[in-house]
């Protein structure tokens, strides 16, 4: 594992447990502002520019000082280390979005079918939506974003909630079975918080070793998809049931990414677009001015790689530059598809495009999967062991076979 802790505090001893004083100290100073709060004081460029370093500092401070894992679990808190990973990802998003919004000439505005009185309550709701709506769906800056077609009934609301709850339960069950299978396949290494490689050095046969690594890479990809989908379903249920959002404001996050017939289709349309505006504003647009479309493509994937590079550090075991290489290779693949279209006049498509996409994604997948496994994330606890469906089913099977 290639570790790098430059600019970060790498030991959990320097963190503090999550508690109200962590966010609201008694001796409140301008440097103690919650980073999310700073976004809504940025009314003019001068104010935005003045508040930008404060936002950067508070985001950095939260990343290196708060410890969500040990705030929730006293015994073996390392099994909840992914909470800190989520925290770091959130603060990095605060960093990127306040950065490009500070210098952007486009003011975020809600797209509404009918005029809505801008009361104090509506302004507050828009501020919350701008914070939590990571894709920016329904806002002017996301008008060109490709959104998957709705597959759930929008009316009545109870039908939408029932379909979303069904999806949530199904994805939790599938996620748990895949996670359990990964732990069994990885033996004691991947199933512990110490972490282990997808490449088992004890397997002498190179084909068997590579097959195991490939299978684990696919499982890691499916688990990433499942975890994000579970979060989205939970978000939709809370938004609609508690905050009375319209179900139409909660379109699908994914569009069957396993059906993609090109890398371009996979990343631009079928995979989630949660960080799309960050990648475009800080990567694609600046580098496209220097190197045209290829520069823009590599710039977007470079920012994506940095996002995952920083997020991996949140697991408290250093980080790994290979995750950046993975996303850069995805950019290379998209550029190659563009060259193919220019040379032949045809898009990468059809079953050959599907094979091409699978080979490229899975072939370079270990650059992403191996660092994740080495971080110990496969040993994390997502459901309590006594009630895990996969564990209960395995015990039942052993009982019946004995």
TrEMBL record:
Protein's pathway: Secondary metabolite biosynthesis
Protein localization: Membrane
BP terms from Gene Ontology: lipid metabolic process
Annotated PANTHER family: LONG-CHAIN-ALCOHOL O-FATTY-ACYLTRANSFERASE 3-RELATED, OS04G0481900 PROTEIN
One term under GO cellular component: membrane
Topology class, membrane: Multi-pass membrane protein
Membrane-crossing segments per the record: 211-228, 295-315, 321-339, 351-369
Gene Ontology molecular function, alphabetical: O-acyltransferase activity
Pfam family, one: MBOAT_2
Identification of the protein by name: Membrane bound O-acyl transferase family-domain-containing protein
Transmembrane found in the keyword field: yes
Record flagged with keyword Protein biosynthesis: no
Recorded family membership: Belongs to the wax synthase family.
Lineage top rank: taxon: Eukaryota
Organism: Mycena metata
Alphabetical UniProt keywords: Membrane, Transferase, Transmembrane, Transmembrane helix
InterPro entries, sorted: Wax_synthase, Wax_synthase_dom
Domain Wax synthase: 250-328
């Amino acid at each position: 594992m290639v570790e790098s802790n430059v600019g970060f505090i790498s030991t959990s001893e320097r963190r503090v447990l999550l508690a109200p004083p962590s966010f609201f100290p008694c001796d409140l100073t301008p440097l103690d502002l919650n980073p999310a709060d700073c976004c809504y004081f940025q009314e003019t460029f001068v104010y935005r520019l003045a508040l930008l370093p404060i936002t950067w500092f508070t985001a950095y401070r939260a990343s290196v000082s708060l410890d969500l894992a040990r705030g929730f679990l006293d015994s073996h808190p390392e099994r909840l280390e992914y909470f800190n990973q989520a925290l770091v990802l959130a603060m990095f998003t605060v960093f990127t979005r306040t950065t490009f919004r500070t210098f952007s000439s486009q003011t975020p505005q809600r797209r509404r079918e009918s005029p809505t009185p801008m009361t104090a309550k509506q302004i507050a709701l828009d501020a919350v939506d701008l914070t939590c709506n990571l894709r920016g769906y329904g806002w002017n800056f996301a008008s060109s974003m490709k959104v998957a077609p709705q597959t759930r009934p929008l009316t009545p609301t109870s039908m939408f909630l029932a379909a979303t709850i069904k999806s949530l339960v199904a994805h939790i069950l599938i996620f748990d079975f895949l996670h359990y299978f990964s732990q069994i396949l990885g033996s004691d290494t991947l199933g512990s918080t110490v972490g282990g490689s997808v490449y088992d050095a004890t397997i002498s046969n190179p084909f068997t070793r590579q097959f195991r690594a490939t299978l684990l890479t696919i499982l890691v990809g499916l688990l990433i998809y499942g975890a994000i989908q579970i979060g989205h379903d939970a978000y939709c249920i809370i938004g609609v049931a508690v905050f009375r959002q319209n179900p139409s404001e909660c379109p699908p996050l994914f569009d069957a990414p396993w059906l993609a017939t090109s890398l371009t289709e996979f990343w631009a349309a079928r995979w989630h677009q949660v960080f799309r505006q960050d990648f475009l504003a800080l990567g694609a647009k600046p580098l496209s001015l220097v190197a045209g479309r290829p520069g823009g493509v590599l710039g977007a994937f470079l920012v994506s790689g940095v996002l995952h590079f920083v997020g991996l550090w949140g697991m408290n075991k250093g980080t790994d530059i290979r995750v950046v290489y993975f996303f850069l290779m995805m950019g290379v693949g998209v550029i190659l598809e563009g060259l193919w279209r220019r040379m032949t006049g045809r898009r990468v498509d059809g079953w050959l495009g599907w094979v091409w996409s699978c080979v490229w994604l899975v072939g370079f997948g270990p650059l992403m999967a191996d660092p994740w496994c080495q971080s110990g994330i496969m040993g994390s606890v997502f459901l309590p062991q006594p009630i895990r469906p996969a564990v209960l089913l395995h015990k039942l099977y052993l009982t019946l076979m004995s």
